[in-house]
Design goal:
By secondary structure, this protein is an alpha+beta fold. It is built from 4 helices and 14 strands. Strand 10 and strand 11 form a beta hairpin.
Length: about 190
């Protein structure tokens, strides 16, 4: 039986400092296998495992990247430190695209400097964070491209050209159409395959 798409939020007060970090660490250690714990803009989010449709989309995007850019690594379940997304900035994007070998150490959370694209696929439990805090955090981190597959809006949105903590360009397409992934990726993503 699939887990319900529900998310628990624990609001963290910035004045709590290390106690928020301790709560985050405790929840991360206690989370059942497949569940993700993220700290985004001062809130701890406990996210259940993704459903099949979600994973099919992530797999298809990853496959299309492989088909066009074999020299790039495609990472799922990889933790990133995203500056200004929260006091600790610990997030786990659905998909990270970076040069192969960028994350060869044993760290749980990584510097986003080598990341070329980060991708999120919305679900009822994550859409608010994907469209808001994560969008802002990825731009502040200078990640060149943020691909948001918004299942509720039935569209793909590509944010690019981060400057002064915000993305300055965006392109959107209804799911089933193609959307251009700008350089450094430089190819059309066919969302009709989702």
């Amino acid at each position: 039986m699939a887990a319900p798409e529900r998310e628990s939020d624990v609001v963290a007060d910035d004045s709590m400092g290390s106690s928020v970090e301790n709560a985050f660490d405790a929840l991360s250690a206690a989370a059942p296998e497949g569940w993700r714990v993220e700290l985004i803009e001062g809130e701890i989010h406990v996210v259940p495992p993704a459903n099949g449709e979600h994973e099919e989309i992530v797999s298809e995007v990853s496959g299309q990247v492989r088909d066009h850019r074999k020299e790039l690594g495609r990472y799922t379940g990889l933790g990133l430190y995203v500056p200004d997304a929260s006091p600790t900035g610990k997030v786990v994007p659905d998909l990270v695209i970076a040069p192969k070998g960028s994350f060869g150490d044993a760290a749980e959370y990584h510097d986003p400097a080598p990341v070329l694209l980060v991708g999120e696929v919305t679900s009822p439990s994550t859409g608010r964070q994907d469209r808001g805090p994560k969008l802002r955090g990825y731009a502040r981190a200078g990640i060149p491209c943020y691909l948001l597959i918004d299942r509720e809006a039935e569209e793909a949105v590509v944010y690019s050209e981060p400057s002064d903590g915000a993305y300055t360009r965006s392109a959107e397409a209804k799911l089933s159409k193609v959307v251009e992934l700008p350089e450094p990726l430089g190819f059309e993503l066919d969302t009709g395959q989702f």
